[in-house]
Amino acid sequence: MSQYHRAYQNGGCYFFTLVTYKRKRFLTQDNCRIRLREAFVRIKKKYPFTIDAIVLLPDHLHCIWQLPEDDLNFSIRWRLIKHHFSIGIKANLTLRKEKQLW
Fold it and tell me: Average pLDDT, whole number, for the chain?
């Protein structure tokens, strides 16, 4: 497993890349695209942030976020976005009973 350090900073601006499990090409399918948008909207209501840019490709996405001045927790946002997205998507499970989406 990769070892990396996360740079947490209040009000930080972050660039993210998320890749689908084994680079499966499903993110641009209508149902997935809609589900992903709903996940972003829902999580932004509870944990605000600004999306400065987003690029959605079939097997990955890139985005730039700006967090509020008093907040540094981008991890909770991604966890909840992935969770909400996964609820409506059928997928095989890993040994840890997680859907093979990310």
Answer: 93
